[in-house]
Design brief:
The chain is mainly beta and 113 residues long. The protein has no helices and 11 strands.
Amino acid sequence: VRLQESEGGLVQPGGSLRLSCAASGFTFSREPMSWYRQAPEKERALVASINGYGSNTNYADSVKGRFTISRDNAKNTVYLQMDSLKPEDTAVYYCYALRFGLWGQGTQVTVSS
């Protein structure tokens, strides 16, 4: 089982970035998936989660209205669309499969002018 995240990057404040996480080795469509992030000197925190069907999503208060989690079960991929990015969104972002306790390798997102 494996989760492979796309590259993050450097984005200016107010900009957008989409992360993707490709899953392999398990029946992806049955599994709820999440995105977490960890900023320097802070604990890893939940950003967003989505159920297996993609019909139910949840977001941290800090990203509501700016971030959108989605999935394409035909591609075994979960996405995190990040809009109106702020410097405080700077962190390493991880995708996570709860049932397996499986983390992606993490990808750095830096929001700075």
